[in-house]
## 1
Amino acid sequence: MRPFPEPVPITRPLVPDLARLSARLASVLGSRQLSNGGAQHAELEAALAGLTRVDHVALTASGTTALILALAALGRRGDEVLTTPYTFAATTNAIAWAGMTPVFCDVDADDWTLSPDALRAALTPRTRGILAVHTYGIPCRVHAIERFAREHGLFVVYDAAHAFGVERGGESALAWGDASCVSFHATKLLHTGEGGAVFTRSAATHARLDRLRNFGLFARDGEFEVGLNGKMSELSAALGLCVLDEVAREITRRGALVVRYQDHFRGVPGLRHVGPPAGVAPNHQYFVLAIDAARFGRTRDEVWEALRAANVHARRYFHPLTSAVPAWAGVPSARPENLPRAHAAAKEALCLPLFGDLGTDVVDRIAEVVLHTAALERAA
Ligand code: T4K
């Protein structure tokens, strides 16, 4: 099989109409207000609150900053936070930067989100919160997680980096927990180049976030608590407002490509599409396959290598587990026997390219490469 002449990336950012972006940028430059909460910033926060029906939105410099700020607003340095190791580095890093300690809990076998059943055994007198991830935009088991949190007086922060646009029963996924943190990085559906946001229903939490993202400064001159510079600039907010107009169309385009992938892989022994359950309106942030080597006949890594040879940059999100890197491998909860399902997921997961202007013919050829590794033919 001949490789693609140009690399096929895992994703490509939405690029908005240049004339509309130029008009916004001209207004920013004309105003001379480039950061610290100008008109674009206010407009994007209001637009996001309106779209999600979550009252309070605090834009931030990145998804990582959003996580650090949310943890700092709801907990204290020295707290233990129950979390998943099946995630991107940023989730675990944020806990450390907030001065807290991650306590790793296993994931569920079907969708690889934090298992509510794993929480109880991880509780200690220092446990103050839970940081769960809506991995790939698949909502985690929020009812069970929040019931457990209420029983034990814990805060709940969702790492919703992948979940902008996800809804269940008409409710935004960003309405759940004490705070939900989104990434607006270039690789995300809605992006501001670099950026993020914390969504919360609590006015008090929002007020604290607002202070913490601005160096911890109080309105009164000179007084401050420990904060950071976690603000989003006007230029990023202007870009975000332009990209926001394109998001619904992008979800539709990606949805069609997901169906195409599913058609190719349906019924193939050892291949499973890991996606949200019925009842969830997805955002199609990623297309994820679980490859069971024993049944498919090839390991995930063999498929990944075959795709690389074909110039397709599929990604092993999330390998390795964050519990397996030297910084954390020594903590008791990081022991592999504590995390068997997360270890299995990190061996099986493969994210295939997915973005709106990926051609259906490219999807067909990617599927062909995957199936060919096991000497199978793709669907006509
Ligand atoms: N929580 C979770 C669960 C997350 O997954 C993330 C980030 C965060 C928190 C933190 O959010 P941020 O602080 O990042 O806002 C990427 C992203 O950098 C990262 O945002 C993302 N998750 C993670 C899953 O993926 P890499 O190292 O894989 O990115 P990179 O540079 O290899 O980009 C992937 C592909 O995207 C490239 O092959 C080409 C394409 N691309 C990328 C960029 C940056 C473009 O076409 N244009 C671009 O500008 O981490």
Note: The domain at 247-379 is CATH 3.90.1150.10 (Aspartate Aminotransferase, domain 1).
## 2
Amino acid sequence: MNKLENFVKGSWVTGDDEGQILYNAVTAETIASATTQGLDFKAMIDYAHTVGNPNLRKLTFHERGRMLRALAMHLRNHLEKFYTLSYKTGATKADSWVDIEGGIGNLFSYASLRRKFPDETFAVDGDGINLSKHNTFMGHHMLVPKEGVAIHINAFNFPVWGMLEKCAVNWLAGMPAIVKPATITSYLTEAVVKEIIASNILPQGALQLLCGNVGDLLDHVTAQDVITFTGSKSTALKLKKHESILNESVPFNMEADSLNCIVLGDDVNPNDAEWDIFIKEIRKEMTAKAGQKCTAIRRIFVPENKMEDAWKSLKQSLSQTVIGNPLNDKVRMGSLAGQSQRNEVKQQVQKLLASSQLIYGSLDSVEVTGADASKGAFLSPLLLMNSTPFASNAVHEIEAFGPVSTIMPYKNLDEAIALSKMGKGSLCSSIVTANDTIAKQYVLGAGTHHGRILILNKDCAKESTGHGSPLPMLVHGGPGRAGGGEEMGGMRGVKHYMQRVAIQGSPTSITNITNVYQQHAKSIQSSVHPFKKYFEELSIGDQVITEKRIITSEDINRFADLSGDHFYAHIQTTNFAGTMFEQQVAHGYFIMSIAAGLFVDSYEKNPVLLNYGIDELRFTKPAYPGTEIYIKFTCKEKLPNDKRITNNAEDFKRGDDIEKGIVKWLVEMIDETEEQVGIATILTMVAKKN
Ligand code: NAP
């Protein structure tokens, strides 16, 4: 029989024994066997530490991001192969799309996220903090990639997304990965990893794969490694207590069972658009991936006077689901991932039935299209009802990882909030309501117990990404029972794979280390105005100290007329008693404008292509007529720019052909007493010489 291969230390190898046989979930035919028997797990970690990690950490965020993009593009060329295998896991086309193209989408998202990071191997975190009276000592935070490996132990339900949602993040952070998919669907993960490796896009050592158990891998983890686990709580707890993980304080991110819920707002009635939205969302969550989603809705809370209408609508909606072979176009719900999963779901449902009743579906029979129900791991959607949710713990604690959900009544919103919390921590919760007062009360009341809350109504339903979709730029994870972990979340996720280090020193040292100019650091004066320099020629700290300009009352009057801003504080004749000001004060925007007049150089064309905007602008002291302003204008940060200027104007389109970068400038506006009147960071686009 075909044995799945493991990717170990840069080579494809098979394990020594027969291994676990893997079956087609729809037809019960054998697909392959999987084993990691005889592999040298310690050597895998050493290889990741000594080869993969140095190869990745020496790349800048932008290089790593472009690598992710190239990989995503490459994988898109092999979709058919992946879909063919995915159908064997019981997934429909729509389910497979989420797994495969959702996973690739994650690579694209994290590729784009590179632009939020500097073109450096490290990142600066937050703002600098002045720690001294005379501005000679300050603090800052930096992030450097950890020196270890990310070990991802994944659940069976998303063999592709489960790997890529995690790897996209550790690769962008500069760490390699060892991926261990759940064995039963590992043949799909193996196929994707084969394409990843064949593409030659990742540096050596960036990825290793285990199709089978992890052997003694965890005995060899170190403090620089990160473990992420997705699966059942029982396995998670076993692993989390592992001696090496405890001894070495290895970060262990856990995503486990989750009793997610949806609440129908009391404002929603059967004829409202929100009613249909509610019913549709539940059906989708119960049947997508045959309910084998960590985020699937397990608990449904409905105002008690609407229970009957709700369960009748739900039964009607569920009855329209065509179940069967995912290869059949009419099929909307496939099989579970295997017979063992089906048996486990049935056992869990039996436990739930001790305190709930089955009101839709059957545990024993299911009608299927294009398949043999006796061979495939099919199960009908099962809707349960529990009339006494405060008296039953099981419904809030037992997760049946299949197309199973329980509907329950509540009396008022406080009860709905309390019931939602009885799950003791979930990945996500939804509330369907057209009333934002109800929504706010729910978010503030239940927010402590859910990783994500979706507020669904007709204003957003059409474009909503749905209750069950974790998104790359939003945090995925939940407190308590859900594991207490956090994945993705845009930049937040990247930081899990980097060490944050606080640094202290003089502004000049901090500037030299971070490559970001810090206020009060030594600057570089030169006879050439920085606007005359190309991107490559500019140095962090290049500074111009401008001429001085006196602000007059006439200037302020003219600026008020020109801009139309006649706010009372800018009017000479205002009675200033009881105001914040002593007399007519200059508009902050006027100060900013004269700042530009002072620091912008020359009528001639120069490498500065355009002013891109202002990041931060603060007016820190009123400027009255007679104030004499000058500007310290300093090159603060340089960012390469590899994106199009997305503007339709023809002039801007032409700019796409020019090689350029973004330069941030610190603008310090200072008066005759050497006090700061305003401060800003402005952005310009500067041409490259070559
Ligand atoms: P599982 O049995 O706990 O397995 C999860 C992973 O752990 C698999 O890769 C499994 O490998 C591995 N594993 C099991 N025992 C291990 C051990 N002693 N040492 C190292 N690895 C071990 O869970 P599952 O059946 O795959 O997934 C279903 C469960 O996952 C459900 O309860 C569901 O709630 C949860 N889930 C949670 C999320 C989330 O994000 N919160 C997402 C998906 C699923 P083998 O396959 O080789 O046993």
Note: The pocket of NAP is lined by residues 153-157, 180, 182-183, 213-214, 230-232, 235, 238-239, 255-258, 294, 399, 401, 427, 482-483 (CB under 6 Å).
